[in-house]
Design a protein that fits this description.
Blueprint (H helix, E strand, L loop, with lengths): L39 H52 L4 H36 L1 H16 L5 H9 L2 H12 L1 H27 L1 H9 L4 H42 L5 H14 L4 H16 L1 H30 L4 H15 L1 H19 L25 H19 L15
Organism: Streptomyces enissocaesilis
Subcellular location: Cell membrane
Protein name: AI-2E family transporter
Length: 428
């Protein structure tokens, strides 16, 4: 009694305890709960969301203000264009505000006078063309009948035109588009006033604007900004000068043609062709030539073909002879670069980009040319479009040697005179 029986042996190794009956391990000071979020992650998420919201807000604001930004850009280039005239008047003691106002009034008076003169001319010509339309139609129908041996009549052509579906749709679209045209006119007037006000402030307060811009820059940067501003004024003024000179030459050339053909309103048409062809790039020449062709058609239908041929020929002369010389002296930009800049400006900003592309590229090219380091070009024929000569004998010399060597080899192979030819086994 009081003694315990023998303990049965177990297969478990020494020191191994049953997990169910083993006591819990001692706490080591490290919590064994689920993994917690890093402290920097919420801040990073909030910062990313804030940046995305700012980007969306900036994108929306830019698209809403893109029209205003384009108007400001146009006004800036207009101010650069009139800066030389305003500067000269201010140098003689006149206030810049008054000088800017006088320059703008002169430009505005010329523009309004030209538009009024052209509008009265167009109104009279349109009325005359409507009254003489049956006569023109008879001439065209008679020419078609004589040329192609047809039997058309004016009554049938008029009935087919008046009863056509496309004419009805055109009248309906024109009636519904009156409000759109009015809105477009009002929007254009507001845009013109915006450009006028900004360009007036840029030109009148040019020194103050430059001073305010330079006040936030270090002295070294101030010199670069002033140099860029001066280059922009020179290049923009040079562009306007070259375009004005080419407009004058174009107007005189077309006036001579219209005077020879006895086309009415020849001076106004010549001014129209000169201005539109030069200040509307790429397609301006053909748009300008359409109106003289229409007026010449009222005099004689064949005169319209003469005007068309002259416009095409003069355009080629201007592109390949006149424009490169004037552009090299005023804007100093290659014609291919000018054409590419106009295409790029049109793709980016439409007609506005086409107008300001050339002075902008000329300014950028001149500004970069002042800081790009250039080296002397090596005297290599390939620079001038030639080919480098190979070292050694030329191909012509080698050909001559070959021709001289062939007769010598033939003479060497022939048997000498007085010497028997070598014997062979067959002869033996």
């Amino acid at each position: 009694m009081g003694q315990t029986g023998p303990v049965a042996p177990t297969d478990e190794p020494a020191g191994h305890e049953d997990p169910l009956t083993a006591p819990p391990p001692a706490s080591s000071g490290v919590e064994s709960g689920p993994a917690r979020m890093p402290r920097w992650l919420p801040r990073a998420m909030v910062l990313a969301l804030a940046l995305y919201a700012c980007f969306q807000l900036g994108d929306w604001a830019f698209h809403q203000l893109v029209g205003l930004l384009i108007n400001i850009l146009i006004a800036f280039f207009v101010a650069l264009a009139i800066e030389p005239a305003v500067g000269r008047m201010a140098a003689h003691g006149m206030r810049r505000g008054l000088a800017t106002f006088l320059v703008f009034m002169a430009v505005l008076a010329v523009g309004i006078g030209f538009v009024v003169l052209l509008g009265s001319m167009l109104a009279g010509q349109i009325v005359e063309m409507v009254e003489d339309f049956p006569k023109y139609l008879d001439q065209v129908i008679n020419w078609i009948n004589q040329t192609f041996r047809t039997e058309l009549s004016r009554v049938e052509v008029q009935d087919s035109l008046l009863n056509s579906d496309w004419l009805r749709r055109y009248v309906q679209n024109s009636a519904t588009g009156v409000l759109d045209v009015s809105a477009t006119v009002l929007g254009g007037l507001f845009q013109f006033l915006t450009i006028f006000l900004f360009s007036f402030y840029f030109a009148a307060d040019g020194p103050r604007l430059r001073r305010a811009l330079c006040s936030v820059l270090p002295p070294a940067r101030q010199a670069e900004v002033l140099r860029a501003w001066e280059i922009a004024v020179d290049k923009t003024g040079g562009y306007i000068y070259s375009r004005g000179l080419m407009a004058l030459i174009s107007g005189v050339a077309h006036y001579i043609l219209l005077w020879i053909l006895d086309v009415p309103y020849a001076p106004a048409l010549a001014v129209w062709v000169g201005l539109v062809s030069q200040f509307i790039p790429t397609i301006g020449t053909y748009l300008a030539g359409a109106l003289p062709m229409l007026i010449a058609f009222t005099v004689n239908p064949w005169y319209a073909l003469w005007v068309l041929g002259f416009v095409v020929v003069y355009q080629q002369f201007e592109n390949y002879v006149l424009q490169p010389k004037l552009t090299a002296k005023t804007v100093a930009i290659h014609p291919a670069v000018a054409f590419g800049s106009v295409v790029a400006g049109t793709a980016l900003m439409g007609a506005v980009g086409a107008l300001i592309a050339i002075p902008a590229i000329a300014t950028l090219q001149a500004f970069l040319g002042a800081y790009v380091k250039r080296y002397a070009v090596t005297d290599d024929p390939r620079v001038h479009g030639g080919h480098q000569r190979r070292r050694g004998t030329s191909a012509l010399v080698r050909l001559r040697r070959t021709l001289h060597q062939e007769p010598r080899e033939e003479a060497r192979d022939e048997p000498r005179k007085g010497q028997a030819p070598p014997s062979s086994d067959d002869d033996a």
